[in-house]
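Entry for S-adenosylmethionine complex. Fields follow.
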Amino acid sequence: MDPVPPTTIRTVPGDARELPGVAPGSVELVVTSPPYPMIPQWDESFRRWGASEYPAMHARLAEVWSACHTALIDGGILAVNVGDALRSGSDGFRLWPNHVEVTRACESAGFRSLPYILWKKPTNKPNAFLGSGFLPPNAYVTLDCEFILLFRKGGLRPFPRNDRRREVSRYTKLERDHWFSQVWDDVRGIRQSGVGRRTGAFPPEIPRRLIRMFSVVGDTVLDPFAGTGTTLWVAHELGRNSVGVENDPELSAALEREALRRTAAEGTG
Ligand SMILES: C[S@@+](CC[C@H](N)C(=O)[O-])C[C@H]1O[C@@H](n2cnc3c(N)ncnc32)[C@H](O)[C@@H]1O
Protein backbone atom coordinates (compact mmCIF):
# COMPACT_ATOMS: atom_id res chain seq x y z
CA MET A 1 0.00 0.00 0.00
CA ASP A 2 1.28 3.49 -0.88
CA PRO A 3 2.14 5.17 2.45
CA VAL A 4 1.68 8.58 0.76
CA PRO A 5 -1.95 8.79 -0.37
CA PRO A 6 -3.04 11.67 -2.67
CA THR A 7 -3.45 14.83 -0.62
CA THR A 8 -5.93 17.68 -0.73
CA ILE A 9 -5.66 21.48 -0.35
CA ARG A 10 -8.72 23.15 1.14
CA THR A 11 -9.15 26.91 1.42
CA VAL A 12 -11.98 28.37 3.47
CA PRO A 13 -13.01 32.04 3.52
CA GLY A 14 -13.88 33.07 7.06
CA ASP A 15 -12.78 34.03 10.55
CA ALA A 16 -9.86 32.27 12.19
CA ARG A 17 -11.78 32.21 15.49
CA GLU A 18 -14.47 30.03 13.97
CA LEU A 19 -12.37 27.81 11.67
CA PRO A 20 -15.37 27.13 9.40
CA GLY A 21 -15.39 23.63 7.95
CA VAL A 22 -12.60 22.36 10.20
CA ALA A 23 -13.93 19.47 12.31
CA PRO A 24 -12.77 18.97 15.90
CA GLY A 25 -9.81 16.57 16.11
CA SER A 26 -9.23 16.63 12.33
CA VAL A 27 -5.81 18.33 12.25
CA GLU A 28 -2.38 17.02 13.27
CA LEU A 29 -0.39 20.27 12.97
CA VAL A 30 -1.09 24.01 12.91
CA VAL A 31 1.55 26.30 11.35
CA THR A 32 0.66 29.96 11.34
CA SER A 33 1.68 33.57 11.63
CA PRO A 34 -1.08 35.83 12.98
CA PRO A 35 -1.42 39.58 12.56
CA TYR A 36 1.06 40.94 15.16
CA PRO A 37 -0.49 43.17 17.88
CA MET A 38 0.98 46.72 18.04
CA ILE A 39 2.58 46.50 14.59
CA PRO A 40 1.00 49.34 12.55
CA GLN A 41 0.61 47.08 9.48
CA TRP A 42 -2.00 45.06 11.40
CA ASP A 43 -3.89 47.88 13.16
CA GLU A 44 -6.64 47.83 10.53
CA SER A 45 -7.08 44.03 10.79
CA PHE A 46 -7.58 44.33 14.54
CA ARG A 47 -9.88 47.34 14.16
CA ARG A 48 -12.10 45.28 11.86
CA TRP A 49 -12.02 42.66 14.61
CA GLY A 50 -13.23 45.32 17.08
CA ALA A 51 -9.89 45.60 18.91
CA SER A 52 -7.67 48.66 19.11
CA GLU A 53 -6.00 48.09 22.49
CA TYR A 54 -3.26 45.53 23.14
CA PRO A 55 -5.24 43.33 25.60
CA ALA A 56 -8.26 43.25 23.26
CA MET A 57 -6.02 42.25 20.32
CA HIS A 58 -4.67 39.32 22.30
CA ALA A 59 -8.16 38.43 23.50
CA ARG A 60 -9.20 38.01 19.82
CA LEU A 61 -6.11 35.91 19.08
CA ALA A 62 -6.76 33.84 22.21
CA GLU A 63 -10.05 32.71 20.67
CA VAL A 64 -8.10 31.47 17.65
CA TRP A 65 -5.67 29.46 19.83
CA SER A 66 -8.65 27.92 21.57
CA ALA A 67 -10.25 26.99 18.23
CA CYS A 68 -6.93 25.44 17.13
CA HIS A 69 -6.88 23.36 20.32
CA THR A 70 -10.30 21.97 19.42
CA ALA A 71 -9.25 21.30 15.80
CA LEU A 72 -6.10 19.37 16.79
CA ILE A 73 -5.87 15.69 17.64
CA ASP A 74 -4.37 14.65 20.99
CA GLY A 75 -0.62 14.96 20.62
CA GLY A 76 -1.04 17.53 17.81
CA ILE A 77 1.31 20.53 17.62
CA LEU A 78 0.68 24.26 17.26
CA ALA A 79 3.53 26.37 15.82
CA VAL A 80 3.07 30.16 15.97
CA ASN A 81 5.46 32.59 14.28
CA VAL A 82 5.14 35.93 16.07
CA GLY A 83 7.36 38.92 16.78
CA ASP A 84 7.33 41.38 19.65
CA ALA A 85 6.68 45.04 18.87
CA LEU A 86 8.30 48.35 19.84
CA ARG A 87 5.90 51.28 19.96
CA SER A 88 4.81 54.18 22.12
CA GLY A 89 1.89 53.59 24.43
CA SER A 90 0.25 55.82 27.03
CA ASP A 91 3.30 55.24 29.28
CA GLY A 92 5.85 56.05 26.55
CA PHE A 93 8.02 53.99 24.23
CA ARG A 94 8.13 50.33 25.22
CA LEU A 95 8.24 46.70 24.18
CA TRP A 96 4.98 44.85 23.62
CA PRO A 97 5.94 41.24 24.34
CA ASN A 98 3.56 39.43 22.00
CA HIS A 99 5.32 36.11 22.54
CA VAL A 100 4.49 36.27 26.25
CA GLU A 101 0.80 36.96 25.63
CA VAL A 102 0.48 34.22 23.01
CA THR A 103 2.20 31.74 25.35
CA ARG A 104 -0.10 32.67 28.21
CA ALA A 105 -3.20 32.38 26.03
CA CYS A 106 -2.15 29.02 24.58
CA GLU A 107 -1.51 27.62 28.03
CA SER A 108 -4.95 28.87 29.15
CA ALA A 109 -6.45 27.16 26.07
CA GLY A 110 -5.01 23.87 27.36
CA PHE A 111 -1.75 23.65 25.39
CA ARG A 112 1.56 22.60 26.91
CA SER A 113 4.52 24.85 26.05
CA LEU A 114 7.52 23.26 24.32
CA PRO A 115 10.97 24.80 23.73
CA TYR A 116 10.62 27.57 21.16
CA ILE A 117 12.77 28.66 18.22
CA LEU A 118 14.28 32.12 17.80
CA TRP A 119 14.29 33.11 14.15
CA LYS A 120 17.08 35.63 13.62
CA LYS A 121 16.91 36.86 10.05
CA PRO A 122 20.30 37.34 8.41
CA THR A 123 20.73 40.90 7.17
CA ASN A 124 23.27 42.79 5.09
CA LYS A 125 22.33 46.05 6.76
CA PRO A 126 23.95 47.18 9.98
CA ASN A 127 21.57 46.97 12.92
CA ALA A 128 18.97 49.70 13.20
CA PHE A 129 20.24 51.16 16.47
CA LEU A 130 17.61 52.95 18.55
CA GLY A 131 19.12 55.62 20.75
CA SER A 132 21.53 58.49 20.50
CA GLY A 133 25.27 58.17 20.16
CA PHE A 134 27.40 56.09 22.51
CA LEU A 135 26.33 57.34 25.91
CA PRO A 136 24.62 54.97 28.34
CA PRO A 137 22.03 54.19 29.59
CA ASN A 138 19.06 55.18 27.40
CA ALA A 139 19.47 53.16 24.16
CA TYR A 140 17.43 50.08 23.20
CA VAL A 141 18.60 46.62 22.20
CA THR A 142 17.77 45.97 18.53
CA LEU A 143 14.71 43.81 18.07
CA ASP A 144 15.90 41.40 15.39
CA CYS A 145 14.45 38.03 16.35
CA GLU A 146 11.00 36.60 15.83
CA PHE A 147 9.66 33.68 17.80
CA ILE A 148 8.40 30.34 16.59
CA LEU A 149 6.42 29.27 19.62
CA LEU A 150 5.65 25.58 19.93
CA PHE A 151 2.85 23.95 21.88
CA ARG A 152 1.40 20.46 22.17
CA LYS A 153 -2.14 19.38 22.91
CA GLY A 154 -1.91 16.69 25.58
CA GLY A 155 0.82 14.05 25.68
CA LEU A 156 3.07 12.49 23.05
CA ARG A 157 1.31 11.40 19.87
CA PRO A 158 1.09 7.61 19.77
CA PHE A 159 2.02 5.58 16.65
CA PRO A 160 1.79 1.87 15.92
CA ARG A 161 5.20 0.08 15.80
CA ASN A 162 7.04 0.53 12.49
CA ASP A 163 4.36 2.86 11.16
CA ARG A 164 5.09 3.29 7.42
CA ARG A 165 3.92 6.90 7.20
CA ARG A 166 6.25 7.78 10.05
CA GLU A 167 9.16 5.86 8.50
CA VAL A 168 8.90 7.66 5.16
CA SER A 169 8.73 11.02 6.96
CA ARG A 170 12.11 10.53 8.62
CA TYR A 171 14.60 13.44 8.72
CA THR A 172 18.38 12.99 8.51
CA LYS A 173 20.81 13.44 11.42
CA LEU A 174 22.10 16.60 9.75
CA GLU A 175 18.57 18.00 9.44
CA ARG A 176 17.77 17.07 13.02
CA ASP A 177 20.88 18.69 14.45
CA HIS A 178 20.22 21.84 12.44
CA TRP A 179 16.46 22.22 12.81
CA PHE A 180 16.19 21.28 16.48
CA SER A 181 18.70 23.91 17.57
CA GLN A 182 17.10 26.89 19.25
CA VAL A 183 18.34 29.70 17.00
CA TRP A 184 17.63 29.68 13.28
CA ASP A 185 19.88 32.31 11.75
CA ASP A 186 20.04 30.98 8.20
CA VAL A 187 16.50 31.72 6.98
CA ARG A 188 16.23 35.03 5.20
CA GLY A 189 12.90 36.90 5.36
CA ILE A 190 11.34 37.41 1.94
CA ARG A 191 11.16 40.73 0.17
CA GLN A 192 7.66 42.00 0.82
CA SER A 193 6.18 43.10 -2.50
CA GLY A 194 2.79 42.72 -4.22
CA VAL A 195 0.31 40.69 -2.19
CA GLY A 196 3.12 39.59 0.15
CA ARG A 197 3.48 43.18 1.33
CA ARG A 198 -0.07 43.12 2.57
CA THR A 199 0.18 39.78 4.31
CA GLY A 200 3.71 39.78 5.71
CA ALA A 201 4.22 36.35 4.11
CA PHE A 202 6.88 34.12 5.67
CA PRO A 203 9.52 32.32 3.58
CA PRO A 204 8.56 28.74 2.59
CA GLU A 205 11.60 27.39 4.50
CA ILE A 206 9.87 28.18 7.81
CA PRO A 207 6.77 25.98 7.25
CA ARG A 208 8.93 23.43 5.36
CA ARG A 209 11.05 22.73 8.43
CA LEU A 210 8.15 22.83 10.88
CA ILE A 211 6.04 20.46 8.79
CA ARG A 212 8.92 17.97 8.43
CA MET A 213 9.69 18.26 12.17
CA PHE A 214 6.17 17.92 13.55
CA SER A 215 4.01 15.90 11.14
CA VAL A 216 4.09 12.78 9.00
CA VAL A 217 2.96 12.29 5.40
CA GLY A 218 -0.81 12.04 5.04
CA ASP A 219 -1.39 14.31 8.08
CA THR A 220 -3.48 17.47 7.84
CA VAL A 221 -1.84 20.86 8.40
CA LEU A 222 -3.97 23.91 9.22
CA ASP A 223 -3.16 27.60 8.81
CA PRO A 224 -5.93 29.75 10.37
CA PHE A 225 -4.28 32.92 8.94
CA ALA A 226 -3.47 31.58 5.48
CA GLY A 227 -2.49 34.89 3.76
CA THR A 228 -0.77 34.01 0.48
CA GLY A 229 -0.98 30.31 1.34
CA THR A 230 2.72 29.58 1.98
CA THR A 231 1.91 26.89 4.58
CA LEU A 232 -0.67 25.26 2.32
CA TRP A 233 1.56 24.97 -0.74
CA VAL A 234 4.52 23.64 1.23
CA ALA A 235 2.35 21.12 3.06
CA HIS A 236 1.03 19.89 -0.27
CA GLU A 237 4.54 19.54 -1.70
CA LEU A 238 5.47 17.48 1.36
CA GLY A 239 2.58 15.02 0.99
CA ARG A 240 0.40 16.50 3.74
CA ASN A 241 -3.23 17.60 3.39
CA SER A 242 -3.73 21.26 4.09
CA VAL A 243 -6.53 23.58 5.08
CA GLY A 244 -6.30 27.36 5.24
CA VAL A 245 -8.69 30.00 6.58
CA GLU A 246 -8.44 33.63 5.44
CA ASN A 247 -10.86 36.48 6.04
CA ASP A 248 -9.68 38.90 3.32
CA PRO A 249 -12.06 38.22 0.40
CA GLU A 250 -9.47 39.07 -2.26
CA LEU A 251 -6.81 36.87 -0.68
CA SER A 252 -9.17 33.98 -0.08
CA ALA A 253 -10.38 34.09 -3.71
CA ALA A 254 -6.74 34.02 -4.84
CA LEU A 255 -6.06 31.09 -2.50
CA GLU A 256 -8.96 29.14 -3.94
CA ARG A 257 -7.79 29.73 -7.53
CA GLU A 258 -4.24 28.69 -6.69
CA ALA A 259 -5.41 25.56 -4.83
CA LEU A 260 -7.46 24.52 -7.88
CA ARG A 261 -4.55 25.24 -10.21
CA ARG A 262 -2.15 23.12 -8.15
CA THR A 263 -4.52 20.20 -7.79
CA ALA A 264 -5.41 20.29 -11.50
CA ALA A 265 -1.71 20.46 -12.47
CA GLU A 266 -1.13 17.35 -10.39
CA GLY A 267 -3.98 15.51 -12.15
CA THR A 268 -2.44 16.19 -15.54
CA GLY A 269 1.17 15.70 -14.39
C1 LIG B 1 0.79 37.53 8.96
S1 LIG B 1 -0.37 37.22 7.71
C2 LIG B 1 -0.08 35.54 7.30
C3 LIG B 1 0.89 35.39 6.16
C4 LIG B 1 1.07 33.98 5.69
N1 LIG B 1 1.87 33.21 6.65
C5 LIG B 1 1.76 33.96 4.32
O1 LIG B 1 2.85 33.36 4.20
O2 LIG B 1 1.24 34.61 3.42
C6 LIG B 1 -1.89 37.18 8.54
C7 LIG B 1 -3.08 36.92 7.64
O3 LIG B 1 -4.22 36.79 8.47
C8 LIG B 1 -5.34 37.37 7.81
N2 LIG B 1 -6.33 37.67 8.85
C9 LIG B 1 -6.40 38.75 9.67
N3 LIG B 1 -7.44 38.62 10.51
C10 LIG B 1 -8.03 37.43 10.24
C11 LIG B 1 -9.15 36.73 10.77
N4 LIG B 1 -9.87 37.25 11.76
N5 LIG B 1 -9.46 35.51 10.27
C12 LIG B 1 -8.73 34.98 9.24
N6 LIG B 1 -7.68 35.60 8.68
C13 LIG B 1 -7.32 36.82 9.17
C14 LIG B 1 -4.76 38.59 7.11
O4 LIG B 1 -5.60 39.00 6.04
C15 LIG B 1 -3.39 38.05 6.65
O5 LIG B 1 -3.48 37.53 5.35
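NOTE: Residues 9-128+141-268 form a domain with the Rossmann fold fold (CATH 3.40.50.150).
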